[in-house]
Specification:
382 residues; alpha+beta; Nucleotidyltransferase, domain 5; 60s Ribosomal Protein L30, Chain: A; five-stranded mixed β-sheet; globular
Length: 382
């Protein structure tokens, strides 16, 4: 089974998926943490345990018709074939599998960081662990170039992968002096600049195909400024710093180690800015709300720009099965009067609403500002 990496379009599509006629979705997460599952027998045991739990939870679903139970059985069988087969684990620390016959859904995702092995059977995909992963980390690109060779890497704080290689024929310098040497040097400089433009164009194409949020560049000191000058304005806006590595020979792991402090500093700055905006909005009665009730109200009104929550935050709540209104507790939906459903973890529903309105999701991992505010809040658009 072909697997893909997690990205925002996939996350939003999953969050919006609903099977026809109230059907079910199987969401299975398998940890591939090498410290726990370093050997094939250990991984096989983990898979069996996960599948046993999936079958147990399927058996607990009451009120299913014969057709619905058969569809669920078929979905579990598809999940089993993936987990017991040749898992697409290259570069992954976990795998997520989503299956629903009623929604025409079957998706296998490689996850960049480990999540706990678990299975959820519900009326929509369980995306909360994915939002924690994707929402708290931005997608990065790293462009390395010397006079002849350029290499492009993409990924995030957990993993970088080389995705493109550009090589151009550029003449070397000559020891000869005089006017001829000056002309030759100008010609060589032109070739070098063209190579740097080719590298920047490869980066632009990659960004159009699958966008990234932040960019690092690496080049010899005499070239790094020229490389940055070759970037167009949208790419320069994403520039977050420079990394010093051997352009031609560094590995993806060595590059990640060298870039790690820059990535972490940028993520910390992003979290700090979001929390400062939240604090200013809450304190000034403006574009910020804190606490579960006010945050759910803002999500229901589609006013959220950034949903911010503490790592591991969870809470009970209520949801309208008709319009999706969310609240802490109520007997009937204030929007249309429909009886509300009790939700053991309304955070999952909050994340789905946030994704549906293209809100950013940020899981606070470095600062404790949210704890006095109830562990959750939102920066508002209006």
């Amino acid at each position: 089974m072909q697997a893909q990496d997690l990205d925002r379009p996939t996350l939003r599509r999953l969050a919006e998926t609903r099977p026809a006629d109230g059907g079910l979705v199987v969401s299975a997460f398998l940890s591939l943490d090498p410290s726990e599952f370093a050997t094939p027998p250990a991984r096989a045991t983990a898979v069996r345990s996960l599948l046993d739990e999936a079958r147990r939870r399927a058996g607990e679903r009451d009120g299913l018709s014969h057709a619905e139970r058969e569809a669920l059985k078929a979905d579990l069988a598809r999940v089993q074939r993936v987990l017991e087969g040749d898992l697409p684990t290259d570069g992954a620390n976990a795998v997520a599998v989503f299956a629903s016959s009623g929604a025409g859904l079957f998706e296998v995702l490689r996850l960049p960081r480990s999540v706990g092995s678990d299975v959820v059977i519900d009326h929509s995909p369980f995306v909360e662990p994915l939002a924690d992963l994707h929402g708290s980390e931005r997608r990065w690109a790293v462009l390395l170039s010397n006079r002849r060779t350029a290499r492009l890497f993409t990924g995030g704080p957990a993993r970088l992968e080389e995705v493109e290689h550009v090589r151009d024929e550029v003449r070397g310098q000559h020891a000869q002096g005089g006017t001829e040497q000056t002309r030759r040097q100008r010609s060589i400089d032109h070739e070098v600049d063209q190579h740097l433009r080719n590298a920047a164009e490869a980066l632009r194409r990659r960004h159009r195909r699958r966008s990234f949020d932040r960019l690092l560049v690496g080049a010899p000191p005499e070239l790094v400024g020229r490389l940055e000058d070759a970037l167009d304005a949208p790419l320069r806006e994403r520039l977050a710093g420079r990394v010093e590595v051997d352009v031609e020979h560094t590995t993806a792991n060595a590059l990640l180690e060298a870039a790690g402090p820059l990535l972490e500093a940028d993520e910390e700055r992003r979290e700090r800015e979001a929390l400062d905006r939240l604090q200013a909005g809450v304190g000034g009665g403006g574009r910020g709300v804190a606490g579960l009730a006010d945050t759910l109200e803002a999500l229901s009104e589609q006013r959220v720009e950034i949903l911010v929550m503490n790592d591991g935050f969870g809470a009970e709540g209520a949801r309208c099965p008709s319009c999706g209104w969310l609240g802490v507790e109520a007997r009937a939906c204030p929007a249309d009067g429909t009886p509300l459903e009790h939700r053991k973890d309304v955070v999952e529903d909050a994340i789905e609403r946030a994704l549906a309105q293209s809100a950013e999701i940020l899981v606070a991992q470095r600062f404790e500002d949210l704890s006095p505010l109830g562990g959750v809040g939102a920066v508002l658009r209006f």
